Each structure stands twice: as C-alpha cells, then as structure tokens.
Amino acid sequence: MTAKFGHITEARKFIVEHLSDDALLGRTGHLIRESLYVMPFDPSQQRAALELTKAMVEDDFPARGIRARIIDIYDIVLDYLDEQGVWEDLTEAEGEYDRDAIILMLQDTVSAVDVIAPEINRQMSEDPRADLFFLTGVGETFPFIRTHAILAELHGNKPIVLVFPGTFTQENDGSTALNILGIPQGNTGGYYRATNVFDL
C-alpha cells in the first residue's frame, strides 16, 4: 500500500528509513529489485522537496553511514548549453519564437540519449563510493527533455531515485507513467521499471 503524506517534508523519516535498507542498497551482495526508484511530490512543494532531498543527502544518510549524491539534470542542460555557446542564442530566441518552437530547439540541441544520460553515467562512475543517487531537475527540464529516454540509458549497479513533481501511475496495460507537473502522459510517458519510494 502506498504511504500518503500531506506534505513532502512529513515523509522525511519514511524515505530515509526505507532507502537505508541494506538489501535495497545492495550491501547484502545483490540488489533486491530493479535499482530505479521514483519519489513523486506535489508540484506546489517544489522548493520544499529539493530542500528535503539536500538535507537527507547531507545529513540523514551520512548519519547512517550511507554516501548519497544529487545529480541535477537541469544543471547538466545549462552547462551543456553554455559549453556549446548557444545559451545566449536561445534566450534571445525566446522573444522571437513561441513556446513550442523553443521546446523543439532545445530538443534538437540537448539530446537526452546523447548528452544527458552519458553525463549522468559519467558522474555516477566517477563516484564509486556513493551508495545512492538522487536525480533532480526533472520539472525544470520538462517537456523538452523526455525523462524516460534518460532512464532507459542509465547504467550502473547503484540505486537511483528520480525526484520529480507529479504522480507515478499504473496504466491499464500494466505499464507505468510519470505524470510530470501533474500532466497525464498516458502511454506516451514511457515504460518505467521503477518502484515508487512510497510503496516500499
């Protein structure tokens, strides 16, 4: 049964206790299930959710001997746009083109498969002592970054928790979807072999 909390901050103890499980972290020799987890929250609680994630990573998990790390997808996008020298062009284009055109430009410039996923994999591989990774920045990069495209390309044997504003739903065909910002994705939301943290 899915645990319910009125506010994401009320879930702190629950999240820390369940994600600290030795079997979940692979400390018993193998992971007990797929290593991908989702941590949905009400979009109106965005700031609180990010502050909570940071507090758990910096305080709660280390107190339990667990090394956790945050990887921000939005930061990866901004760094890439800056490195390619296109950030200024895109900000100037905002005044000339409509939202859909800007989204298409971003999709053409920042590939989830060729840019973002490899950078996440690189960061994870360069921190082999980490026990647990939290991916943030999903709401900030929606809809020009398709989260399911990133998740399908992630490698590694450490648990990954996708922190995002919205809901995680089970579809009629048995697949699941991330409804980012509460926008129903239906069968376009991708198939996620993930476990909801609140179902642990």
Overview of the molecule:
There is one protein chain. This protein is α/β, with parallel strands linked by helices and about 200 residues long. Among the domains are: about 10-35 and about 45-70, no CATH class; about 70-130, no CATH class. It is about 40% helix and about 15% strand.
What's the topology here?
Elements: H1 12-19, E1 36-41, H2 46-63, E2 68-72, H3 73-84, H4 87-93, H5 99-109, H6 112-125, E3 132-136, H7 138-141, H8 147-151, E4 160-170, E5 176-180, E6 195-196
Parallel strand pairs: 1-4, 1-6, 2-3, 3-4
Antiparallel strand pairs: 4-5
Helix pairs in contact: 3-6
Helical content (DSSP H or I, runs of 4+): 25-40%
What is the alpha-carbon Rg in Å? 17 Å
- Largest sheet features: 6 strands, mixed
Order of helices and strands: HEHEHHHHEHHEEE
Figure out the total of helices.
8
How many beta-strand segments? 6
Rough outline:
globular
Average pLDDT number: 85
Distance between the termini: 8 Å
Q: Strand portion, in percent? A: 15-25%
Low-confidence stretches: none
| Structural class by helix and strand composition | alpha/beta
In short:
The chain is an alpha/beta fold and 200 residues long. Among the domains are: 8-35 and 43-68, no CATH class; 71-132, no CATH class. The chain has eight helices and six strands.
Keyphrases for this structure?
6 strands, 200 residues, 8 helices
